[in-house]
Amino acid sequence: MSDNRRLTGIGVLITRPAHQAGTLAARVNELGGLPWLFPVLEISDVENKQPLLTLLARLDDFDWAIFVSPNAVEKVLPLIQAQRTWPEHLSVATVGMGSARLLKQYGISNITVPDDGTDSEALLRVPPLQQMQGKRVVIFRGNDGRKLLGDTLRQRGAEVEYAACYRRTKPDTDPTQLLKCWHANKIHAVIVTSSEGLDNLIDIIGGTGQQLLRSTVLFTAHDRIVQKAQALGIVKICRTSVGDEGTVQGLLDYFNDIQAHEIT
Questions:
Q1: Do the beta carbons of residue 9 and residue 32 sit within 8 Å?
Q2: Nearest to 254 by CA among 28, 52, 79
Q3: CA 162 from chain center: how many Å?
Q4: Which of 62, 103, 124, 221 shows the greatest Cβ crowding within 10 Å of its Cβ?
Q5: DSSP SS3 for 191
C-alpha cells in the first residue's frame, strides 16, 4: 500500500497519559492531522514506596515477575537497579511488546509475551503459564488493577503477590475548550487505550460531550474497550492493530476511504 496517504485536517483526540502521548501526537501532526492532547488518566508514584521496596529486597523468593504495563516497568526497574541486580532465575512475563521493549532496554531478555493480544487474557494463554503448581509470582501493577491474572494463576496452583508500583487517577480537567472545538466539528476521531480511560473520558466530558462522542469514530486496539464502547452507545468504532503505528494505520485506513467516510 502506498504511504503517500495523509490525515490532512483531521482532528484527533488523544486520551493517553501525557507522558505516553508524544510519539503518537507527533505522527498525527507529521501526516497533516491536528492532535488534541486530552489525558484522561494521570500516572504517579505510589504514596508510600516502602512496601514496594521491601518486596524488591526479597525478589529472589519469586519464580515469576509479571509486568502489566509499560508504566509498571518504568516505575519498578529503576528502583531495582538502584538497590540490586536482577535475579538470574527469575522468569519475566508481560502483556505487550511495548513493555517487553522497555524491559530489554533495562537489560532483561527472555521475556514471555503473548503474540495474539495485549491483555491478561492473552498472557494467560501462553504455554509457560499453564503449569504453575507451587510457583511464586509477583505481579507489578497500578492501584486496584484487574484481578483476573492473579486469580487465574492461583487457580493453576501459583502463590501470587501483587505489588502496587504506581497510581492511576482521573485528572481534574476542564473540558470547556475541547467541547467548543468538538461542537465546531474540529474533532473527527477519538483514541482510547484503556477501559478506565474511557470511563474517565465519559465522566469528564459530561452529557453534552457524550453525545458528541457517540457521533465520533473511536479508535482502539483492545476488544474490551470495543465492548465497553458499544455498551455506552458508541456505534462508530475502529479496531486497530496495537502500538502507535497500528493506531496511525487505522486512522489512515479509515479517513482515506473518502467515499465511505467524508469529513464535512
A1: yes
A2: 28
A3: 19
A4: 103
A5: strand
